[in-house]
Amino acid sequence: MTGDFNIRDCSWDPNFCFHSIHKDTLLDIADSFHLIMSEPTNHIPTRYSDNQQESDSVIDLMFLRPTLSEYNNHSIHPDWHLISDHTPLTVNIAILKEDIQMRKYTIIKNSKEEDNFIIELTKAIKGLNTEDIQSKKVLEHIIQSFADCTEQIWYKHSKEWWDENCHRDLELYSLKIQEIANKKCSPWKLINWVKK
Q1: Same domain, yes or no: 86 and 109
Q2: Fewer CB under 10 Å: which end of the chain, C or N?
Q3: The domain spanning residue 72 has which CATH number?
Q4: d(Cα 177, Cα 195) in Å, to the nearest integer?
C-alpha cells in the first residue's frame, strides 16, 4: 500500500516537530491489512514545495508485509520527480527464474475433432446409470465417473498447442521485462519507451 497520504508527522518526517491526529488511524488501517510502514533507504522529502514559505515534506509512504524481510525497505528518488511536486518511491522485488512446464490442449471450433468429441461425450452422458441414486455417495461416484470419462474423451480428441515456439516467446517476453526493469531512467521515460 503506497501513495500520498497527505499526513505530516514527526514519526516519518524528521523536519516536522508534531504528531498528527490522523497517524494512528492510518497505522490501524495498515495493520488491519497486516502491513507495516516501510523504512526508506534514504531519509529525504517526498514532496517538494514550490512555495518558499512552506518546507519540503514527507507525506508519501509505503506499507509492506512484515513477513517479507527482503522487501522491508523502499527508496525515494528525488531526481525522478521532473515537473511533479512528488517524487516516486520504489521497492525492489526479486524475480526468480523459473522453468514452467506447460502442456495446453485445445479442440478447434467446427473441426472434425470437435464433432467426434461431442459424439463421444453424448454417448457417455446417455450411458450414465442414474436410475438408482439413493445416497450422496452413489451420486458422487456417478459424477466422478462422468468427470473421468469426459477427461479421457477430451485428451483423445484435443491437440497440444503449447509448443517450443510458445516457450521461446515466453522467454523473450521475460527478457524484455527484465531489460525494462533494469533500465536506468525515470518511470515516465520508461512508460514512453515501452509505448514505442
Answers
A1: no
A2: C
A3: 3.60.10.10
A4: 13
